[in-house]
Design brief:
It is globular, with a radius of gyration of 22 Å. By secondary structure, the protein is an alpha/beta fold. The chain starts with 5 loop residues before the first strand and ends with a helix. The chain contains 15 helices and 21 strands. The longest helix has 16 residues, at 285-300.
């Protein structure tokens, strides 16, 4: 792998794979790839000088290329099958990313949720502070127009994926763990097994590296306590009075005077004798927690504490994280990637704050049959934060349908939730029901983001009707 100059990525249009493709290209390597259908991401990759094929065909694979795959690529894929037949090197996306980051101070941001925002926050704050880090984030950062960037500095910030254990391929200088809340139970089977993979992740730290853990999350707190028994430099953070009992005391960094409204958030960070005020241009207590983790990592990388705190204001959000998509009259539309109950609840609480006295509606597309089956009741509880709830069919992604597992497992636990199989119809129905001054959120990790035009068109029709 280290001597190859050509890489071929199967599923290159995916958020994670496209980032790796751009980074390898920026390293001066020859890069090609394929995906099932056209998308704006493929257009972007072509503009970057990467050869992209639509559809999967064995003829697309250069005979001298290292083939890069994600867990979602099945062995039956004709391109992967051809690479296996030829005996070509086949590596996971995370291994290719580690190659792109070789020789740099690697910061890996992990957790069941919050890792995209935290890694993007850290990246943009470091840039604002005068650093030029390389970046690999699984969402578009608007200021960059991409989730990938190869900087001139020696720091590499990457979102680290625990879903398939691939984050174990990294050797970070700093690890951030935003939470260890059980997910991906189709792979891990139990809370204990899920937590164990994070223990293994901590074992990947370079000697002398730093672990940054959220002290408000029980799993992350337990991980911090374990790491300290191993002599690992560990820094925990939490709001005063919100520490998990598993932390066994106060966090190292205390978040005081936390405040958020519909558009911003602020707090005072206290780390021993150091105090720093942060003012964010994104709302939510969860974003204050994310920002605190980013601040700690920036300080550990050598950035002045006050400069790092000030630079966090440079972060303006990422795509599909409570992203404003448009408004008609007094009704506003947001789109969010939330696909775990905790994320759903946080996004809807953020919507509630932004809506003020207005209503909140959500059109939710569950992601994965296994996740729906494991968390159906918790999803219903999280969705109950909205006034109107529409749930469409499950987005299966890498999974095959499971008999008896449908979105009705969720709606059966929430009396006011509507099960509408077609996501476009669900969006239109939700749009018609929402009153003035309300907020509608399209939510999920699948294709639900495509329904934004349905909502805006429906509202435009309502506005035209009221004006006649």
């Amino acid at each position: 792998m280290s001597t190859s100059h050509r890489f071929h990525l199967i599923g290159i249009g995916g958020a994670g794979m496209s980032v790796v493709a751009e980074l390898l290209k920026d390293r001066g390597l020859e890069v090609s790839g394929s995906d099932q259908k056209e998308s704006p991401i493929l257009d972007h990759l072509r503009d970057a000088g990467i050869e992209v094929f639509v559809g999967h065909d064995a003829a697309h694979v250069p005979a001298d290329a290292v083939v890069v795959v994600s867990t979602a690529v099945r062995e039956s894929n004709p391109e992967l099958a051809e690479a296996r037949r030829r005996g070509q090197s086949v590596i996971h996306r995370s291994q290719a990313l580690a190659l792109a980051a070789s020789g740099m101070r690697f910061v890996a941001v992990a957790g069941a949720h919050g890792k995209t925002t935290t890694s993007a926050m850290l990246s943009m704050a470091l840039r604002d502070a005068g650093e030029d880090p390389s970046i690999a984030v699984g969402a578009v950062i608007p200021q960059l127009g991409s989730g990938a960037y190869l900087g001139s500095g020696d720091v590499f910030v990457a979102e680290a994926d625990e879903s398939d254990g691939s984050f174990l391929n990294y050797t970070p200088w700093i690890e951030i763990v935003t939470n260890v809340e059980p997910d991906h139970l189709d792979r891990y089977g139990s809370r204990e097994a899920f937590e164990q993979v994070f223990v293994d992740f901590v074992g990947c730290l370079r000697p002398g590296g730093t672990l940054v853990c959220c002290g408000e999350d029980g799993g992350s707190a337990r991980l911090a306590r374990y790491a300290r028994t191993q002599g690992i430099d560990t820094v925990t953070y939490a709001r005063s009075g919100h520490e998990s009992a598993d932390l066994g005391g106060s966090a190292d960094v205390i978040i005081e005077e936390a405040h958020t409204d519909g558009h911003t958030a602020s707090a005072l960070l206290v780390w021993g004798d150091v105090k720093a005020e942060i003012h964010l241009t994104v709302p939510g207590i969860h974003n204050l927690l994310n920002a605190c983790a980013a601040w700690i990592a920036g300080v550990r990388l050598g950035t002045d504490a006050q400069t790092m705190a000030h630079s966090l204001a440079a972060f303006a959000g990422t795509s599909r994280r409570f992203e404003f998509k448009g408004e008609v009259g007094t009704r506003r539309l947001f789109d969010d990637y939330a696909h775990h109950p905790t994320e759903v609840a946080a996004a809807l609480q953020q919507a509630r704050t932004a809506a003020g006295d207005g209503e909140v509606s959500v059109v939710f597309q569950p992601h994965l049959y296994s996740r729906t089956q494991a968390f159906a009741e918790r999803f219903a509880q999280a969705l109950s934060h909205a006034d109107h709830v529409y749930v469409c069919d499950i987005y299966g992604a890498r999974e095959d349908p499971v008999p008896g597992v449908t979105s009705q497992l969720i709606t059966s636990h929430l009396s006011r939730a509507h099960y509408v199989p077609d996501m476009h119809e669900a969006a239109r129905m939700a749009a018609r029901e929402l009153g003035e001054d309300g907020i509608l959120v399209t939510m999920g990790a699948g294709s639900i983001t495509q329904t934004g035009s349905d909502v805006l068109d429906e509202w435009a029709h309502v506005e035209q009707g009221s004006g006649q």
